[in-house]
Structure formats: C-alpha cells, structure tokens
Design a protein that fits this description.
The chain is α+β, with helices and mostly antiparallel strands. The protein has two domains: 31 residues; 156 residues, no CATH class. The protein is built from five helices and seven strands; from the N terminus they run αααββββααβββ. The protein has a seven-stranded antiparallel sheet, with helices on one face.
C-alpha cells in the first residue's frame, strides 16, 4: 500500500513538473513573440482578411487570379521617397498599392504594400467591421490589439494619408481606419508587415 501511494505521489509530482515546464515555455514564447516579425492578432488574423476577399494570400498573383485585371492601373515614380516605383490597381471594392521590386536576383515583381477596402460589402471578423462601422465599434473589436503609436502612424500615412487610427495585426501588419466627421469608417486599409515600401 505504501509503495502504491509513493507511485501516485511521484506521478502527480512528475505531472506538475511537466506542467510547470510547459507553462514556462509558453510564457517565454509569449514574451518573445514581438521579436523577429512575429505577433498574433487578437481580433483577426491575416487569413481572416484574405478569406473575406476570397484570396489565398495578399499578393498580385492571387488578386489577379481571383479578380482579373484591375479597372485602372496607374504607375509612377515617387521622387520624395527613394525614387520607388509604385503601381496602384483599382477594383470595385478595393485598391491595391504595389512597389515595383527589382533589386533581388530573381525576376522583378510587384510587392503588395497596401490594400484599401472601400466597399461596405466587405466585413471583417466576428463584429463585422468595415465601411460604415463606428469608431466605437472598431475600438471595441480591436481593444485587445495594440494601437499603432504616433510615429508608426505617421509612416502609415505616407501611403494612406487619411489614416485616423490603426492597430497592429498579425506579424505587425497595420490595420488602418479613416473616419468621417460623424466617426464612421469611410475607408479601411491593411499594410502587410514590413511593407511601407521604403
């Protein structure tokens, strides 16, 4: 009987030890998820935004496959920002801003740096945030996501000049909002992580 009690005690003690180790590992990774581009979105992952648009990912190939050629395509050189070449594709429900990328060894391509959602039919997440949502709705939905600080918001404004407020999303992407005078969303943008296109 004494041996049986000792075995139970050892099993419970070992189980507690394993739980403590797992808890420490979890806390370590939660504390270090801010490093190296890793960050979890509390409200909605990037997959949630792509799913609403019927895309597999935010890139030119996926958008062209799903939506075809844009209604209009505008290309220009941004002389105020490192002479980067920008391409704006306009669709009915969203606009896509790309930066022409040719400094890698592979073939040149257009890297998506921003998508602006402009139709009230596009709704994101459980709270159905989109055009027409109130600022209060947005703040309630994204309250567990870190708000973009003023310096980063100023960078975001370079490509999305009407930004009033923003939140860091998955892997530090930017979810941005522009409000009218009544505090309703008039446009919403997403800038994938490291996509300011400098």
């Amino acid at each position: 009987m004494q041996v049986h009690k000792r075995r139970i005690f050892k099993t419970v003690l070992m189980s507690l030890g394993i739980l403590v180790v797992l808890l420490c590992i979890t806390l370590y990774f939660n504390d270090h998820q801010d490093c190296c581009g890793e960050h979890r979105a509390a409200y909605l992952s990037t997959r949630g935004y792509t799913r609403e648009l019927g895309l597999t990912r935010f890139d030119e190939a996926s958008i062209l496959q799903k939506y075809g050629s844009p209604i209009t395509r505008t290309r220009w050189v941004d002389s105020k920002m490192n002479d980067r070449t920008l391409i704006l594709d306009q669709y009915l429900t969203f606009d896509v801003l790309y930066i022409y990328t040719d400094w890698y060894e592979c073939e040149p391509y257009n890297e998506l740096i921003q998508i602006v959602f402009k139709a009230d039919t596009l709704r994101f997440g459980r709270k159905k945030i989109g055009i027409g949502s109130t600022q209060e709705d947005v703040q309630k939905a994204y309250f567990r996501d870190q708000k973009i600080n003023e310096d980063d918001l100023a960078y975001c404004a370079y490509n999305y000049p009407d930004v009033d407020e923003g939140y860091y999303g998955e892997s530090w992407c930017n979810i941005l909002f522009s409000y009218d005078d009544n505090g309703k969303v008039i446009s919403m943008a997403m800038q994938p992580s490291e996509s300011w296109g400098w």
